[in-house]
Amino acid sequence: MFATLSDRLADTFKNLRGKGRLSDADIDATAREIRIALLEADVALPVVKEFVGAVKERARGEEVSGALNPAQQIIKIVHEELVAILGGETRRLRYAKSGPTVIMLAGLQGAGKTTLAAKLALWLKEQDKTPMLVAADLQRPNAVQQLQVNGERVGVPVFAPEPGNGTGNPVDVARASLEEARRKLHDVVIIDTAGRLGVDAELMKQAADIRDAVQPDEVLFVVDAMIGQDAVTTAQAFLEGVGYDGVVLTKLDGDARGGAALSIRSVTGRPVMFASSGEKMTDFDLFHPDRMASRILD
Ligand code: GDP
């Protein structure tokens, strides 16, 4: 992820090395290069425009600091603007003040939701929480079993409808899971909801019904970072249909160009909270905008 963008930006900055002072023409040329690099990385057009505009304005206005040469100065500005579009501060989970914290996951089928649910459970366990997973995806025949397998891998119990009752109502399952969590003293409940191959009204309604029934502390929209511009379109559809507090980017280990990661915060106004980056259960962490920006500019 981001390899092409990183290379393109590095080339752009290389051209500035050795220059004593940047002329307006140098700044314009650099801005153009950055624009092309971002567009090639599949960053959404309005985000590119805003980003390049901000870099240009700052590059022109900024006092040249004695400690930095022009190339370093631009890199610093680009770094800071990258951090800004990625959301600035790391957004941490909000836990409930009393009773179990309820986290609901929503997203398309194949986004990596079931895998992510288990990764998140393990991550919470490592922070001395006692999570429980909830199989409220009753649409796909194997979803419950898949969550159970993943739950076993990380040693976290899975609340699921009784076998033979696979056509149960996901809203009832989600509601019942909260009682179970209180009874068994789980302090975090992670509810996996049904995904579809594409956005549809029924899927949205079901997710919204679960949300209304359990009033989650956090609704997280899970999206595959490899699907490029489609990730942004899907993110908008889920924002309107279900609403969410934060985004989880999955498959950041893939070879996609990274545009989704850079666009989603600006387009939806919701922060990326977690990054999932591989098949291993430990390939998962909070999303840190400053580290991501450094990775892009390294
Ligand atoms: P769901 O349909 O949203 O529940 O998606 P799954 O959790 O079943 O994941 C779909 C596929 O993507 C599976 O083959 C996972 O192993 C794979 N997958 C999930 N997360 C990641 C990730 O971060 N990186 C990679 N490379 N593959 C992933």
SSE layout:
Elements: H1 3-14, H2 24-40, H3 45-61, H4 70-85, E1 101-106, H5 113-125, E2 131-136, H6 143-154, E3 158-159, H7 170-183, E4 188-193, H8 201-214, E5 218-224, H9 229-241, E6 246-250, H10 259-268, E7 272-276, E8 284-286, H11 289-297
Parallel strand pairs: 1-4, 1-5, 2-3, 2-4, 5-6, 6-7
Antiparallel strand pairs: 7-8
The protein binds guanosine-5'-diphosphate.
Tell me what you see in this structure.
Keywords: Cytoplasm, GTP-binding, Hydrolase, Nucleotide-binding, Ribonucleoprotein, RNA-binding, Signal recognition particle. This is Signal recognition particle protein. The protein has helices spanning 3-14, 24-40, 45-61, 70-85, 113-125, 143-154, 170-183, 201-214, 229-241, 259-268, 289-297, and strands at 101-106, 131-136, 158-159, 188-193, 218-224, 246-250, 272-276, 284-286. By secondary structure, the chain is α/β, with parallel strands linked by helices. The protein starts with a helix and ends with a helix. 46% of the residues are buried. The structure holds guanosine-5'-diphosphate. The site of guanosine-5'-diphosphate (GDP) has 17 residues, from helix 5. Guanosine-5'-diphosphate binds next to helix 5.
**What's the shape?**
elongated
Note the main sheet: 8 strands, mixed
Q: Show unreliable segments.
A: none
Bound molecules: guanosine-5'-diphosphate
Which structural class is indicated by helix and strand composition?
alpha/beta
Strand content: 5-15%
Helix content range of the residues, please? Answer: 40-55%
* Terminal Cα span: 13 Å
* Average of per-residue pLDDT values: 91
User: Taking Cα atoms only, what radius of gyration do you get, to the nearest Å?
Assistant: 21 Å
| Beta strands, count | 8
Strand order of the largest sheet: 3-2-4-1-5-6-7-8
The secondary-structure element order is HHHHEHEHEHEHEHEHEEH
- What is the tally of helical segments? 11
